[in-house]
Design brief:
The complex is a heterodimer of chains A (255) and B (450). Chain A has 255 residues and is mainly alpha-helical. Chain A is 62% helix and 1% strand. Chain A is globular and about 55 Å long. In chain B, α5 links the parallel β15 and β16. Classes of the chains: A mainly alpha (255), B alpha/beta (450). At the A-B interface, α1, β1, α2, α6 and α7 of A face α1, α2, α3, β4 and β5 of B.
């Protein structure tokens, strides 16, 4: 819980232009020098000054840990959804005990681990602590997979898991996580894929009706289209990046 | 996420680069060299684990909706898949403009990265050497700058920097290592201005008032007039009182030869304060050398430990650096060998030179060295660096008695030295050295009369 957020660790390079194309070029190819990204493109600057001032006024003591607190709450909600609260009453004391244990585990494992990924030890406990965010997400997936939730809870499970992964990326994966949130394309694509698969999963293909198979075929076609669109977006982005790297930047990115 | 107007917090960057809280007792060995290949980041591991787990559960249990849990991370992985912009050749070059400094001064190390593609994130890490403390990390384009503070004198390794280069998609990372090289950290000399002198000074012009009469400025007495004396030296009050011409005598002004003897037989850490006796010994030696060099005396150094080092006395402002460099690697001399002071050449330990033995008096071998010096006729002063009392558990009566015995043994040791004509002064490394040396100003330091 006390882990620092990655954005806070990027102090030395803060102040750079956060909206430019993020990439760092090495000094070996100065002719293709593009723009520079470092830890400055991390968590800083994603909130407007007014929102930041509101938080600073309201929670002055918790200001630096607010992102981690938010991820913790997200993780707790994910665990709660994964254990299927609609059936807790039927499971009895064992079910409640299990849910409480899962919640305690979430308090330990859900907060973002933003330390540098250095292998300090090969001991299991050390590795578990280092990868506890991954273990937490996988554990929630397993919990949700072996329950049989109603449809609305499936939607919540999928949404919370995706939100948790995006939030952890934003706080621990450096500029990439911040960038994907800021640009919005990756979360939108992921959410669309989740929604599409959920819809397809609810298609009554086994009921014997013809329209169910049609819906499933449409879903498969839509998934293929989405994958193609994603690749096309990446290809166009790659071409534009290459075109941009052939021209020197209009202004020096090193400030 | 909230940090737009937040002041830069260098502490977080330092903590991240170090991988945890900082410790001055860092291991001397650098961490294992990282692999030179691209490998998965934590993000890639997380997304792929969730996607594969969800897909596997969907296949095993037949729950199609579980594929929805796999779809989100799978799309994120697909969007971040490595492009052709990932660097193939990566190298790092460390530049440390200044590799010599005093304790407490900053050291800046710059690592210039060179690679042939694009990276999305440069994540620096560093394993500092044992004598320095990381104060700041700055990433500016392909240049990473580490700011250190020199904490302990010595010839230390500055450490190694392991810098992670993440690809643009954030799914792969490659670590490049840069050796930051060695630095020379000079001890901060203790505050010392007093320069006690032996009773007999060598016949060389200097600033210390000798007992012999000469051409100095210090009044030494009067004597009857002799043929050839200058008229301006007539002491008129004595002449009128005695009825015959009296001539003023002045004291000679001589320079002293001083040798600092450093006890490197061991390094004892004070249980209460954690101070190192060897650290304080070298600081005291540097302070003494600086004080005598400012008086234009000749100062030399002899270090006795597992290895014998010496530098014959010399003078001049720059000689302090030669003295310090002689003992800069003295930490590596700790050993069981007992050196013979007779192996020190005569120019390094001139006859009649004042010897300051700076020692914690924790090893019996230094007593043999002191005895040999006294037998040579050199005036010797022992500057004791206290080791601190051993820690005793409260309520342990036997330990209390042992502590009393230990203290009495120390007192007996000091008494035996004083009886042998070797004054003992104590300096704990925190105050001014002048306070410890002041009693030596009452009379000159006497050596053994042969």
């Amino acid at each position: 819980m006390s882990e620092q957020s990655l954005g806070e660790s990027g102090g030395p390079s803060r102040g750079q232009d956060n909206d430019r194309e993020p990439a760092t070029s090495g000094s070996a190819t100065p002719a293709t020098a593009a723009t520079v990204t470092s830890a400055a493109d991390t968590a800083d600057g994603t909130l407007s000054p007014a929102v930041y001032a509101f938080f600073a006024r309201t929670f002055p003591q918790r200001l630096n840990s607010l992102p981690n607190d938010a991820v913790l709450l997200l993780g707790a909600a994910l665990v709660l959804a994964a254990v299927d609260p609609t059936k807790l009453a039927m499971r009895g004391p064992v079910g409640w005990l299990f849910a409480m244990a899962a919640m305690v585990a979430a308090i330990w494992a859900a907060p973002v681990v933003s330390r540098r990924p250095t292998a300090e030890s090969i001991r299991f406990t050390s590795q578990l602590g280092r990868h506890r965010n991954t273990v937490f997400a996988v554990g929630c997936t397993i919990l949700a997979g072996f329950s049989d939730p109603p449809v609305w809870l499936m939607v919540i499970d999928a949404a919370l898991l995706l939100a948790y992964l995006l939030a952890v990326d934003a706080l621990a994966a450096g500029p990439v996580g911040i960038r994907q949130l800021r640009h919005g394309m990756a979360p939108l694509c992921a959410a669309a894929a989740v929604a599409m698969v959920l819809l397809a999963a609810q298609a009554p293909v086994n009921s014997g009706a013809v329209w169910g198979r049609i819906v499933a075929a449409l879903a498969v076609a839509a998934a293929a289209t989405a994958a193609g669109a994603a690749l096309w977006i990446r290809q166009t982005g790659k071409q534009s990046a290459q075109a941009g790297s052939e021209e020197p930047p209009a202004h020096s990115p090193h400030r | 996420m909230l940090g737009r107007d937040r002041p830069a917090s260098g502490g977080d960057a330092v903590r991240r680069a170090l991988g945890g809280p900082q410790s001055l007792d860092a291991p001397a060995e650098p961490p294992r060299a990282p692999t030179q290949t691209w490998r998965l980041t934590e993000r890639a591991l997380r997304l792929s684990s969730v996607a594969l787990t969800a897909a596997a559960i969907a296949l095993i249990t037949g729950r199609a909706w579980m594929l929805a849990l796999a779809a989100g991370p799978a799309v994120l992985l697909a969007l971040g898949a490595p492009r052709s912009t990932r660097p193939g050749r990566v190298s790092a070059r460390a530049v440390v403009p200044v590799r010599r400094c005093f304790e407490g001064e900053p050291i800046v190390a710059r690592v210039d990265l060179a690679f042939d593609g694009l990276v999305g994130w440069i994540d620096p890490g560093v394993a500092p050497g044992p004598g320095v403390e990381l104060a700041g990390v700055n990433v500016s384009g392909p240049v990473v700058t580490f700011s250190f503070i020199a904490r302990r004198w010595g010839r230390w390794s500055l450490g190694v920097a392991d810098i992670d280069l993440h690809d643009v998609g954030g799914l792969g990372r490659r670590t490049v290592r840069a050796e930051l090289g060695d630095v020379d950290i000079y001890p901060m000399p203790s505050d010392s201005t007093l320069t006690p002198i032996p009773t007999r000074l060598p016949n060389r012009l200097g600033e210390h008032t000798a007992r012999q009469s000469g051409d100095g400025f210090e009044f030494a007495g009067v004597r009857p007039y002799a043929w050839g004396d200058r008229q301006r030296r007539i002491h008129w009050p004595s002449t009128t009182r005695r009825g015959e011409i009296q001539i003023t005598q002045f004291a000679a002004e001589r320079a002293a030869d001083t040798v600092v003897l450093l006890d490197a037989f061991g390094d004892v850490r004070d249980p209460a304060t954690g101070r190192s006796t060897l650290d304080d010994s070298v600081r005291a030696a540097a302070g003494l050398a600086r004080a005598y060099l400012r008086s234009h005396d000749r100062v030399g150094v002899v270090s006795v430990g597992g290895r014998l080092r010496w530098l014959q006395p010399g003078t001049g402002g720059g000689y302090l650096y030669r003295i310090v460099e002689t003992v800069l690697e003295v930490r590596r001399d700790l050993g069981y060998h007992a050196p013979d002071i007779d192996h020190v050449p005569a120019p390094a330990l001139p006859n009649g030179a004042l010897v300051y033995a700076i020692t914690p008096l924790a090893d019996d071998r230094i007593l043999d060295v002191l005895r040999d010096l006294a037998e040579r006729g050199n005036p010797v002063v022992v500057v004791e660096i206290p080791t601190g009392d051993p820690r005793v558990e409260p309520g342990d009566e036997a330990a209390d008695f042992a502590l009393r015995l230990w203290r009495m043994d120390r007192e007996a040791l000091r008494f035996s030295l004083v009886e042998r004509g070797i004054p003992v002064v104590a300096w704990d490394g925190s105050g001014e050295l002048d306070l410890a040396l002041a009693p030596l100003l009452r009379t000159g330091v006497r050596g053994r009369i042969r």
